[in-house]
Protein backbone atom coordinates (compact mmCIF):
# COMPACT_ATOMS: atom_id res chain seq x y z
CA UNK A 1 0.00 0.00 0.00
CA UNK A 2 2.82 2.40 0.86
CA UNK A 3 4.53 1.69 -2.47
CA UNK A 4 1.27 2.23 -4.31
CA UNK A 5 0.60 5.59 -2.64
CA UNK A 6 4.18 6.72 -3.23
CA UNK A 7 3.91 5.73 -6.88
CA UNK A 8 0.59 7.57 -7.26
CA UNK A 9 2.13 10.67 -5.67
CA UNK A 10 5.08 10.50 -8.08
CA UNK A 11 2.73 10.10 -11.05
CA UNK A 12 0.65 13.09 -9.94
CA UNK A 13 3.81 15.19 -9.62
CA UNK A 14 4.92 14.17 -13.11
CA UNK A 15 1.49 14.97 -14.54
CA UNK A 16 1.66 18.46 -13.06
CA UNK A 17 5.14 19.02 -14.52
CA UNK A 18 4.00 17.81 -17.92
CA UNK A 19 0.90 20.04 -17.81
CA UNK A 20 3.13 23.03 -17.08
CA UNK A 21 5.48 22.09 -19.93
CA UNK A 22 2.53 21.76 -22.31
CA UNK A 23 1.27 25.18 -21.24
CA UNK A 24 4.70 26.75 -21.85
CA UNK A 25 5.06 25.04 -25.22
CA UNK A 26 1.63 26.26 -26.32
CA UNK A 27 2.60 29.82 -25.37
CA UNK A 28 5.94 29.54 -27.15
CA UNK A 29 4.25 28.09 -30.23
CA UNK A 30 1.83 30.99 -30.28
CA UNK A 31 4.68 33.50 -30.03
CA UNK A 32 6.58 31.77 -32.82
CA UNK A 33 3.49 31.74 -35.05
CA UNK A 34 3.08 35.49 -34.49
CA UNK A 35 6.78 36.06 -35.23
CA UNK A 36 6.51 33.92 -38.36
CA UNK A 37 3.52 35.94 -39.58
CA UNK A 38 5.37 39.18 -38.90
CA UNK A 39 8.47 37.97 -40.72
CA UNK A 40 6.36 36.93 -43.70
CA UNK A 41 4.82 40.38 -43.90
CA UNK A 42 8.19 42.13 -43.55
CA UNK A 43 10.09 39.84 -45.94
CA UNK A 44 10.60 41.10 -49.47
CA UNK A 45 9.11 39.07 -52.34
CA UNK A 46 12.68 38.11 -53.31
CA UNK A 47 13.34 36.66 -49.84
CA UNK A 48 10.08 34.72 -49.92
CA UNK A 49 10.84 33.36 -53.39
CA UNK A 50 14.33 32.33 -52.27
CA UNK A 51 12.91 30.57 -49.23
CA UNK A 52 10.28 28.77 -51.33
CA UNK A 53 13.02 27.69 -53.75
CA UNK A 54 15.06 26.27 -50.87
CA UNK A 55 12.05 24.28 -49.69
CA UNK A 56 11.35 22.92 -53.18
CA UNK A 57 14.96 21.88 -53.84
CA UNK A 58 14.75 19.59 -50.83
CA UNK A 59 17.13 21.49 -48.60
CA UNK A 60 16.90 20.22 -45.04
CA UNK A 61 14.26 22.36 -43.31
CA UNK A 62 16.39 22.66 -40.19
CA UNK A 63 19.30 24.28 -42.03
CA UNK A 64 17.18 26.55 -44.20
CA UNK A 65 14.97 27.55 -41.29
CA UNK A 66 17.87 28.14 -38.95
CA UNK A 67 19.56 30.35 -41.55
CA UNK A 68 16.31 32.17 -42.20
CA UNK A 69 15.52 32.65 -38.54
CA UNK A 70 19.00 33.88 -37.71
CA UNK A 71 19.06 36.35 -40.57
CA UNK A 72 15.45 37.46 -40.72
CA UNK A 73 14.75 38.32 -37.05
CA UNK A 74 17.74 40.65 -37.00
CA UNK A 75 16.40 42.55 -39.99
CA UNK A 76 12.77 42.94 -38.87
CA UNK A 77 13.85 43.80 -35.34
CA UNK A 78 15.90 46.72 -36.62
CA UNK A 79 13.24 47.63 -39.17
CA UNK A 80 10.44 47.30 -36.64
CA UNK A 81 12.15 49.37 -33.99
CA UNK A 82 13.34 52.01 -36.47
CA UNK A 83 9.96 53.25 -37.72
CA UNK A 84 8.34 53.05 -34.28
CA UNK A 85 11.13 55.00 -32.62
Structural overview:
- There is one protein chain.
- It is elongated and about 65 Å long.
- It starts with a helix and ends with a helix.
- It is built from 4 helices and no strands.
- The protein is mainly α and 85 residues long.
- Residues 63-85 have low confidence and may be disordered.
- The protein has helices at 2-42, 45-56, 61-71, 74-84.
- This is TSC22 domain family protein 1.
- Belongs to the TSC-22/Dip/Bun family.
- Residues 50-85 are annotated as: Disordered.
- It comes from Calidris pygmaea.
- Pfam families: TSC22.
How many H/I helices? Answer: 4
Q: Fraction of residues in helices?
A: over 70%
> Strand-and-helix sequence, N→C?
HHHH
Which spans of ≥5 residues are poorly predicted at pLDDT below 50?
63-85
Q: Helix- and strand-based class?
A: mainly alpha
Number of strands: 0
Give the distance, in angstroms, between the N- and C-terminal Cα atoms. 65 Å
Strand proportion, as a percent range, falls in under 5%
Largest sheet: none
Report mean pLDDT, rounded to a whole number: 79
- Global geometry: elongated
- Rounded to an integer in angstroms, the radius of gyration calculated over CA atoms is 21 Å
Amino acid sequence: DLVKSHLMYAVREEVEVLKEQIKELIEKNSQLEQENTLLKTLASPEQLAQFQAQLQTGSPPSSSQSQGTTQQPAQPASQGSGPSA
